[in-house]
Write a structure and sequence with these properties.
Strand content of chain B: 15-25%
Largest interface: A-B, 39 and 33 residues
Distance between the termini of chain A: 52 Å
CATH superfamily of the largest domain in chain A: Thiamin diphosphate (ThDP)-binding fold, Pyr/PP domains
CATH architecture of chain B: 3-Layer(aba) Sandwich
Helix content of chain B: 25-40%
CATH superfamily of chain B: Thiamin diphosphate (ThDP)-binding fold, Pyr/PP domains
Order of helices and strands of chain B: HEEHEHHEEEHHEHEHHE
Number of strands of chain B: 9
Number of strands of chain A: 15
Oligomer: heterodimer
Chain lengths: 359, 244
Amino acid sequence: MRNKRVLVKGVEAVALGALEGGCECYFGYPITPQNEIPEIMSVELPPRGGVFLQAESETSAINMVLGASAVGTRVMTSSSSPGISLMSEGFSYLIALELPCVIVNVMRGGPGLGGIEASQGDYFQAVKAPGHGDGKFLVFAPYSCQEAYELTAKAFELADKYRNPVMILSDAILGQMKEPLELKPLKIKKISKEGWALTGAKNRPARVIRSLFLDSAELAKRNLTLLRKYQKMEREIRFEKMAEGGEKVLVVAFGSMARICKEAVLNLRAKGYEVGFFRPITLFPYPKKALAELVSSQKIKKIIVFELNCGQMVEDVALSLKGMGKLISKSYPPSVIPFPEDLEREIKKCLNSSDFPRV
Amino acid sequence: MSQLFRFPQSLKKTLFHYCPGCHHSLIHRLLCEVIDELGIREKTVGIASIGCSCFLYFYIDVDIVEAPHGRACSAATGIKRARPDLLVFTYQGDGDFAAIGLGDSLHSASRGEKFTVLMINNTLYGMTGGQVSPTTPLCQKTTTTPLGRDPQVHGYPMKIAEMLGNFEGVALSARVAVNNPKRVLSAKEVLKKAFLYQREAKGFTYVEFLSACPVNWKMDPLSATKYVDKLTEIFPLGTFKDIG
């Protein structure tokens, strides 16, 4: 049987991916540009025996997620930048309590109320410090509706696998862009939560899920346990690369910006320019090793990082390359979106110039 | 022969960390007696909040999850919506329920979420050292109202049980005290009723306990117990809504 093809927006692909991933509960609060997700979930979840509830705020929504996760259900929320900031205390608790869930951030321009057009301004927030303390998310950045669907579904399995929140970091371009989606059934594993979920202390001792450790040694140990878990997440690292040798410049970008970049790179390559492309799909853990290996094995001299923000991911690229090659940051603050031709011009400038400002 | 005294099964045999004269330990015990008498220990999940009672799980032998400050009602909502078969309670102070968490609390009540709230009203922030809270009576001195609560500066004490009495989603809203044996017995009856209503999915159930905080009230335990009588003039005991 052929897979069903549908024409959907990125946010609709996220919602369909969540249903494919076995999402049982959704809690959220309206915010543009992601309202289609709660709207779809409000229609789709109740008939499947699931729960949809619109909370009175993002702070409430994320704590409803906390409750539903504690009793072992597959649960998610979605929001956009200002709403994500409001949830960040809850994020820290979810990480500390090792409660799996999926969080979708359809980024919009900031700071403050900013705008409702695309931005990648929440990169640092997503990958460095989703909440207070040392916690981390597993972060995926889809760049197409197909990838948004597949990664969101997979996120539920990985959240359960690591007992950790997984974030889908998207933006208003991908979120509101329509393209064909192949609704293929995915093999998303069910992972038993019998060993830890709160289901009532029947035939077992009572369980406690807590994050308060007043004993200093105990808290240090707790943090190290979590750190080891983040290190294990490196197994989930995904990326896309296009560089077979002889490339003089490597373009690095993620999410929607990577989509624009890829078109620019393909156009240039078709014209014979020696340009490579690297797209991290996992933003935390960052594909540091893969990027460094690519640059060193292909002897790439110049690396150009395009972002829809004031320059954030470029710092992870710098950490990955440890001084290898010349690094240039081309940042496009929200919400003026460049065309592929604009990027082609920048890449050509980089190819031609013997010198350019270093980051 | 009927047994006159029994250690509640749901209460762990450990020493309380609470200060002398604090009413938390009494209320913990009442909660455990109710859980035992209703035979619901194996399907109960509690929410520990932020405050002196954050270590609830050291004493109460049921499944417990910790919620961020003020978010107990939202966490309870998530649990109860996901698993309506479980019996869910939150255990919160006046700061947690009525200050930082008021939005979560009132919206949960308004939605008629089917869980039980134990709100321990000691009229100040106990764990952080006795600062003013939404339920601090006028003129009461706290560490952040050193001259006493002045309504022109700090506003008026909030009467939560009365307020919730007007909510359509609320099945039971009551204020009780545990500063004398008669009140202890009647508090237990009200708490038991709250869990029964929850079991019957009648709506949001709220039991507010006036509770002594001798250390932060700067009183000895006996005077603090007597001061609860005075508090009942501002916060009258009684049932403000009972849908029966």
